[in-house]
Amino acid sequence: xxxxxxxxxxxxxxxxxxxxxPGQYLTDKWPVLHAGDVPEYPADLxxxxxxxxxxxxxPLELSWAELDALPKETVVQDIHCVTxxxxxxxxxxxxxxxxxxxxxxxxxxARFAIAHAEAGFTSNVPAAALELEGALLATHADxxxxxxxxxxxxxxxxxxxxxxxxxxxxxxIELRATDAPGFWERYGYHNDADPWEEQRYGF
Length: 203
Known about the structure:
- By secondary structure, the protein is mainly beta.
- It has one domain (21-37, 47-197): Alpha-Beta Complex (Sulfite Oxidase, Chain A, domain 2).
- Helices cover 10% and strands 30% of the residues.
- It contains three helices and eleven strands.
- Strands 1, 4, 5, 8, 9 and 10 form a six-stranded mixed beta sheet that branches. It has a five-stranded mixed beta sheet with strand order 3-2-11-6-7.
- The protein is globular.
């Protein structure tokens, strides 16, 4: 069976080459990529808040202390960047969507989720993507709080999609009846972002 050079490296590292999406290469590092500057917050996150609004029965706004008090879980999953790196077995911890869902009670019309982050950045996914195993509002990575470059204090983690869908510096999630292209989608990136289908660009 033919294997690409990247797949051979994955096999040599002791992993199943089938875990590597097409066109990707494996790295142990976590490269830093984002548009704009890293936002700065006070150490105690005074004045910071996270909200959920739109197609919900009960809109929600939480301070950092209120959010941090919600139930947590830890997941281990592979992450894949559109710039072609993949990192296996990334350990991510945070608040599962279920802990938010039960507080806001999404309406049946809530078919899409728009992540709103700092500096007007948005990222869009079907609302069902928030229900996937491994989806989180992440606060920690590899046992430590997220660094500023990786989205501290909160980033969305959406499994099974290129990692640009996992918005850093998350401040709100809007549930909508209709989709709305996110920041990178408006620049021509693919709306679905499935690494296994190499859905990198939409044109």
